[in-house]
Design a protein that fits this description.
The structure is a single chain. This protein is α/β, with parallel strands linked by helices. It has three domains: 200 residues, Rossmann fold; 87 residues, N-(1-d-carboxylethyl)-l-norvaline Dehydrogenase, domain 2, CATH 1.10.1040.10; 135 residues, NAD(P)-binding Rossmann-like Domain (Rossmann fold), CATH 3.40.50. The strands form three sheets. A six-stranded parallel β-sheet has the order 3-2-1-4-5-6, with helices on both faces. A six-stranded parallel β-sheet has the order 11-10-9-12-13-14. A two-stranded parallel ribbon has the order 7-8. Strand 4, helix 5 and strand 5 form a beta-alpha-beta unit. Helix 10 packs across helix 13 and helix 12 packs antiparallel against helix 13. The longest helix has 32 residues. The radius of gyration is 24 Å and the shape is elongated.
Length: 438
């Protein structure tokens, strides 16, 4: 089965590589010639555990190809995934210009029946806009070529994307015809053979499913952060509360860990876009607006704790920061709490030395040389007035506290992810502050 994937970002590259790994002939397309040249040499534009090996293996096997020529990719293809970016506009709405530009070009290049599948996260109604672009392009050519438009949203967690694609909780497909359903049934047969379910539905429902899923998970996070902040006021321990409610099967124990706010490429953008979609259609999504408000405020919690310890004027203070990416196992810093924390500390006159296992190059693009970058976790500590734990990478979980204490100027730890024990650290002479704990 020949497949085209347009866009070699996070979603497109994972989708194309994993489909090639189950035996399909996949061509990934991108307008960025440098990115395509690097991919042909095995240089990936993103960090994702296991992805480099899959790309290398399938390129060597002749199943995975990279090109800037969309016409080359769609010739004889049965399905074409649109997996380009949908960045948020200033009003929070999803910017569909890249999706629709790809649809137009597919219409200009396709030569036979094709199922055009939106893989990017797009608002309800996007598939119809894609259909109109295809129809207009074909009409301009005077070509009468049949096609279908389908929605197949991704549910990939950064840092676990390969596992999520290969062993999905569910595969959601929005289709408009039996022919499109037959193509998608064959496409996902390698996964249904292993018992992973495919849910076929109408296209608008599939488009909404993706937004609703991310919005629900974001809601759980903001809810727990709100509870954590109240726990601090009332003298309760949010870790105990989390265990108490997480054991209820109706609630579950996932996405109820308090912290310093969610970030990344999905939750912030998708919550904003869904709120905007509601507003455009005369319905205020009040809960989701609060979810976003709580999350934005939560990104300031760590600096509030710093100022509680050291005062509002941080001139002359120096801080060590462990973690920059928005979560472990990724170099993604889009909407990362670390960005807000660094900006606030610098604005208050402080200096920062940071270490992250994979995100420092990305940080240099986003923050630049306004902070220092350490070669390892301990190298960030000398002379620091406090250690700020921002991202819960595994290598930060059990540090040598005797070594940490000797390197720090002041034995202060502010734990933005609650991975350390306050009582244990206080026994060792540290001042400790977590989220929602005393």
């Amino acid at each position: 089965m020949k497949i085209a994937v347009v866009g070699t970002g996070y979603v497109g590259l994972v989708t194309g590589s994993c489909l090639a790994d189950v035996g399909m002939d996949v061509t990934c397309v991108d307008v960025n010639a440098e990115k395509i040249a690097n991919l042909k040499k095995g240089v990936l534009p993103i960090y994702e555990p296991g992805l480099e090996d899959i790309v290398e293996r399938n390129v060597a096997a002749g199943r995975l190809h990279f090109t800037t020529d969309l016409a080359e990719a769609v010739v004889a293809a049965e399905a074409a995934f649109i997996a380009v970016g949908t960045p948020p506009g200033e009003d929070g709405s999803a910017d569909l210009r890249y999706v629709l530009a790809v649809a137009k070009e597919i219409g200009e290049r396709m030569t036979d029946y094709l199922v055009v599948i939106t893989k990017s996260t797009v608002p309800v109604g996007t598939a119809e806009k894609v259909r109109r672009e295809l129809a207009a392009a074909l009409q301009a050519r005077g070509a009468d070529i049949p096609y279908d438009v389908a929605s197949n949203p991704e549910f990939l967690k950064e840092g676990a994307a390969i596992e999520d694609f290969m062993k999905p909780d569910r595969i959601v497909c929005g289709v408009q015809s039996a022919r499109a359903q037959e193509v998608l049934t064959r496409l996902y047969k390698p996964f249904t053979l292993n018992g992973h379910p495919v849910y076929f539905m109408d296209v608008p429902s599939a488009e909404m499913t993706k937004y609703a899923a991310n919005a629900m998970l974001a809601t759980k996070i903001s809810f727990m952060n709100d509870i954590a902040n109240l726990c601090e006021v009332l003298g309760a321990d949010v870790n105990m509360v989390r265990k108490g409610i997480g054991s209820d099967a109706r609630i579950g124990n996932r996405f109820i860990y308090p912290g310093i706010g969610y970030g990344g490429s999905c939750f912030p953008k998708d919550v904003k876009a869904l709120v905007r979609t509601g507003a455009e259609n005369g319905y205020a999504l009040r809960i989701l607006q609060s979810v976003e408000d709580v999350n934005e405020d939560q990104k300031h919690v760590m600096v509030r704790k710093v100022k509680k310890q050291f005062g509002d004027d941080l001139r002359g203070k120096h801080f060590a920061m462990w973690g920059l990416s928005f979560k472990p196992e990724t170099n993604d810093m889009r909407e990362a709490p670390a960005l807000v924390i660094c900006e606030e500390l610098l604005a208050a006159g402080a200096t920062v030395a940071a270490y992250d296992p994979v995100a420092m190059e990305e940080s240099k693009h986003m923050i630049g040389d306004r902070i220092a970058y350490a070669k390892d976790a301990y190298a960030a500590l000398p002379g620091a007035d406090a250690l700020l734990l921002v991202t819960e990478w595994r290598e930060f979980r059990v540090p040598d506290w005797n070594k940490v204490g000797k390197l720090l100027k002041q034995k202060v730890v502010i734990d933005g992810r609650n991975i350390y024990s306050g009582p244990e650290l206080r026994q060792m002479g540290f001042a400790y502050a977590g989220i929602g704990v005393q």
